[in-house]
Design a protein that fits this description.
There is one protein chain. By secondary structure, this protein is α+β, with helices and mostly antiparallel strands. It folds into 2 domains: 4-55; 64-222, 3-layer Sandwich (Rieske Iron-sulfur Protein), CATH 2.102.10. 22% of the residues lie in helices and 27% in strands. It is built from 4 helices and 15 strands. The chain has helices spanning 25-55, 73-80, 116-122, 124-127; strands spanning 4-5, 14-15, 69-70, 87-95, 103-113, 143-146, 158-160, 165-167, 174-175, 181-183, 192-193, 195-198, 201-204, 206-209, 218-222. The radius of gyration is 29 Å and the shape is elongated. It starts with a strand and ends with a strand. Bound molecules: FE2/S2 (inorganic) cluster. FE2/S2 (inorganic) cluster binds next to loops.
Length: 223
């Protein structure tokens, strides 16, 4: 117990500060209770805040559970009638930003028509666990939808019909029809996005993966 003598008055009085107090068993017990209660309340608040943040980063897979952006009937038709050429699919992306109301933006993805067994053989990186596995079916209804974002540093790549490859204009990364990495500094192949059909409407979900690393690490997920 610390005490401070009031020397100015010279009467030997002591003044107790806020931190001073008797070290009786009751006082020690009270302090222990307060410390435990504070830690418990802090833990509960942290848990309440953490659950929605973690939940927002978990892909819901093809079974749904979030909001999906629909493709138009024309876009779906162009995908269904595609042959050996990827199809650029434009759509309106619905997204949320913090606590703002849902917003919209014009976006596009790349769709390819595949034989599932051949695609899985061509893209083992998508099915590698841990690190590559996206946690939802990369192939759905015989199609794969690729994010348009280059896994190197995030530029937009394009399909080059003459070379039969996806080419990124920024640093020269190249990917084949299946999105496998062929050349350039990109650390992995193209990233597939969730795709499904509901009541005749094809829908995609926008996920942004971390660039520059071989693993697929979600940095934002619009569901
Ligand atoms: S951003 Fe595509 S190669 Fe660098």
């Amino acid at each position: 117990m610390s005490k401070h003598a009031d020397a100015s008055e010279g009467v030997g009085r002591t003044i107790l500060t806020a931190n001073d107090g008797p070290d009786t068993p009751e006082e020690i017990s009270r302090r222990t209770f307060m410390a435990t209660a504070t830690m418990t309340v802090s833990g509960i608040i942290g848990l309440v805040l953490a659950v929605p943040i973690v939940g927002s980063l978990i892909p819901s897979g093809s079974s749904g559970g979030g909001s999906w952006s629909p493709l138009t009937a024309d876009e779906l038709k162009s995908l269904q009638t595609a042959t050996a050429k990827p199809v650029k699919l434009s759509f309106t992306l619905k997204y949320t930003d913090g606590y703002l109301p849902t917003q919209q933006a014009d976006e596009y993805v790349w769709g390819i028509k595949v034989d599932q067994a051949k695609f899985e053989a061509a893209r083992p990186d998508i099915y590698a666990t841990p690190g590559g596995n996206v946690g939802y079916p990369a192939v759905n209804l015989g199609f794969v939808i690729f994010s348009p974002i280059c896994p190197h540093l995030g530029c937009r790549f394009d399909w080059n019909t003459g070379q039969n490859k996806f080419l990124c204009p920024c640093h020269g990364s190249q990917y084949n029809f299946d999105g496998a990495h062929l050349a350039g500094p990109a650390p992995r192949g193209l990233d597939p996005l969730p795709f499904r059909e509901q009541s005749g409407v094809a829908q995609v979900t926008w996920i942004e993966y971390k660039t520059t690393v071989p693993q697929r690490i979600i940095i934002s997920y619009q569901a």
